[in-house]
Structure formats: structure tokens, C-alpha cells
Write a structure and sequence with these properties.
The chain is of the alpha+beta class. It is about 25% helix and about 25% strand. The relative contact order is 0.28. The strands form 2 sheets. The protein has a 4-stranded antiparallel sheet with strand order 1-8-3-6. Strands 2-7-4-5 form a 4-stranded antiparallel sheet. α3 runs antiparallel to α4.
């Protein structure tokens, strides 16, 4: 897809990048933050939404920041089906020392079961294990391929969500459903330079004057992006 460089972008795009860059730096404190060199700007009309997906393209770095402007929406996360289904539904094959992914099938029950094993409470462990497999083999549960959302975020005008780490894209899908009317989603991403043609590296370069760098000042945000009545 053809794109324009930040040097060609209108002021509103640079201002959005300014806010997203602040959010990324403020949220990611482990030293791995890399300045965004791509900004996606998508508009959603009333009732338009984006279904379950991830942002785990190989070209991208491990963090993404998304700014929601306009109408309200719900952003939900659920574990991917290939990680959600507990495949070993045979008590004899159960391994209480394997890690359990949060949000996977019967994950809370399996964590509690594993805790009994680690504590050496073997009689309680065997009883709980039998109940786990009885529950897993109930009609309907055995054929389930997807779980419900494990996290729902109520997005209002001006909210920014920062997703950090490769696992959130590897293990989880997310979707955004509108609650209001026109909504814009502006997403800052870092594309690995080795995956960008050398002659296009300039597109991701930008400079913001020190006195204009956004620092989280809410009054400045409200002045630039007033809410509609």
C-alpha cells in the first residue's frame, strides 16, 4: 500500500503522532520503546466495526498505541482458539506442572488444581482433577472452540490504548465495536527498518519542536480536541 511521509502529512497527523508517542513512552518503561514510524488513520461510520484480529505482522515491532477519537466503542480481547482449547481431555495425560495461559479453557480451575498439586494436597488434587474433566466433558463444553472475552475496555473520546509485547498479538485477538456514531482510530506502529525499502526510510522520519512535545497535559488536549455536545 502506498503511503505518504510524515514530512508531507497535515498538522493533525503530526499532532496525533505527538500524543501517541507520549503514550508509548509513558507506558513502556522497560527501555524497549521505539519511536513510531507509521501512523494508520481509519474512520468508522455509525455501526461500522473491526472484527477479531491481531496486529502481529512480522514487519512490526512489539508495541502499538491506538487513539480513539469521536464516538464511544468497546475494545475486547480474547485468547486465540488454538491457545484456548484444552486439548488433553484425558485425566491420565494431565500435567500439573505445565503453565496455564490466562483466558484459556477452564484456566482458573486448572490453576487451582495445579496449586493443590504443588502444595502436596494429593487427595484434594485427585478429587479436583476428576471434577475438572467431568466439567470439560459436559455436553457443549467438549466441542467449544473459542472462549469469551477476557478483557473489555470502554473507549471514550481521547482514550489511548498501548499494547506492548509480542505475546499479546501472538496469544490474543482483539475487536472494536462502536457504541456511538462517527469514530476515528489512529494507530501508531513501529515497522522494523530492515523491512522497509531503503529509499522509503525517510517517510518515517519526523521532528517535533521541543516546546510542542506533548507531555500528557489534559488542558492542552481539551483545547485541541474539544468534545462535541
Amino acid at each position: 500500500m502506498d503511503s505518504r511521509g510524515f514530512s508531507e502529512a497535515p498538522p493533525a497527523i503530526i499532532d496525533a503522532l505527538n500524543h501517541l508517542s507520549w503514550a508509548g513512552k509513558d507506558a513502556i518503561k522497560d527501555g524497549s520503546y521505539q519511536p513510531f514510524n507509521e501512523l494508520l488513520c481509519l474512520g468508522y461510520r455509525e455501526k461500522q466495526s473491526i472484527g477479531w484480529h491481531d496486529d502481529g505482522e512480522e514487519d512490526l515491532g512489539p508495541h502499538i498505541a491506538s487513539w480513539s477519537l469521536g464516538g464511544a466503542a468497546i475494545m475486547s480481547f480474547k485468547i486465540k482458539s488454538k491457545y484456548w482449547v484444552y486439548k488433553e481431555r484425558v485425566p491420565e495425560n494431565y500435567d500439573p506442572e505445565l503453565p496455564v495461559q490466562d483466558g484459556s479453557q477452564s484456566w482458573k480451575q486448572r490453576n487451582a488444581l495445579n496449586d493443590l498439586y504443588k502444595a502436596g494436597r494429593m487427595q484434594e488434587y485427585e478429587t479436583a482433577k476428576k471434577k475438572l474433566f467431568d466439567d470439560l466433558n459436559k455436553k457443549g463444553e467438549k466441542t467449544k472452540k473459542n472462549g469469551s472475552a477476557v478483557l473489555n475496555l470502554d473507549l471514550k473520546h481521547g482514550d489511548i490504548v498501548v499494547m506492548h509485547g509480542e505475546d499479546i498479538q501472538k496469544l490474543y485477538d482483539h475487536e472494536v465495536k462502536p457504541k456511538g456514531k462517527m469514530r476515528f482510530g489512529l494507530t501508531g506502529r513501529f515497522i522494523k527498518p530492515e523491512n522497509i525499502p531503503e529509499e522509503e526510510h525517510w517517510k518515517g522520519n519526523f521532528t517535533i519542536a521541543p516546546e510542542k512535545v506533548y507531555d500528557g497535559d489534559l488542558a492542552l488536549f481539551k483545547a485541541n480536541f474539544p468534545e462535541e455536545d
